[in-house]
Amino acid sequence: MWKGGSKEGWLIFWTPFDTAGLGKLTELELLYLIDWTNQGTFPSELGQLTKLTIQVLDGNSISGTLPHEVFELTELTNLNVGSNQLQGTLPPALFSRLSHLQWIYINDNMISCTIPAEVGQLSDARKLEFQNTKLSGTLPTEMLMLENLTSLVVTGTSLSGSIPEELCDKIYQKEMKCYGSPPCTVFRVNSNTTACHGTSLCGCDCGPCKPN
Predict the structure, then answer these.
(1) pTM score, two decimals?
(2) Residue boundaries of the structural domains of the chain
(3) 93, 90, 94: which is closest to 112 by C-alpha?
(4) Is residue 1 pLDDT above 60, yes or no?
(5) Which pLDDT belongs to residue 133?
(6) Which superfamily does CATH assign the domain made up of 2-176 to?
(7) Are 206 and 182 in contact (CB under 8 A)?
(8) Is 211 exposed, middle or buried (0-12, 13-18, 19+ CB in 10 A)?
């Protein structure tokens, strides 16, 4: 089943289809491939759709790593590749080249790395969802540069360390919330979110940090 097309500038699929000719739809601005159960790797043809602003590929069985072709989609504001089987790392180019991204959903994949410092280049970022991945290390201090961030979800990762005090201040100023089970304390104000339960993060409302 599909809706839209290249003339309308958007395309939505809910059923498997051959992506071989997808790269010819160069006028596409919005692409949804929902539960399309692809059994292969990330379609490299998507790199030819340079006018895309929204790309949603969640709920599939995409494996492998994010191909370098994705980093040619410099107009993207929304990238959703959640609930797949992606492995590898978050390349710095994901953040440095796709600097217009506002919403990033990498959740429920097997991504295994630290969060690159280049995340600080996403000046328009509003929502980052990295939950249920194999991310490790600490939150980079460059996240302090994300002035528009309203939601950060890192539950179910191996992130650890203290959250920078300056980031805590930003969270409180925006009345963001931390929710879940210990070490998180329930703090609900509005739709803005920071979620840290299931991690070793501390600070803010994610539980006190142990003295060195």
Answers:
(1) 0.81
(2) 2-176
(3) 90
(4) no
(5) 94
(6) Ribonuclease Inhibitor (3.80.10.10)
(7) no
(8) exposed
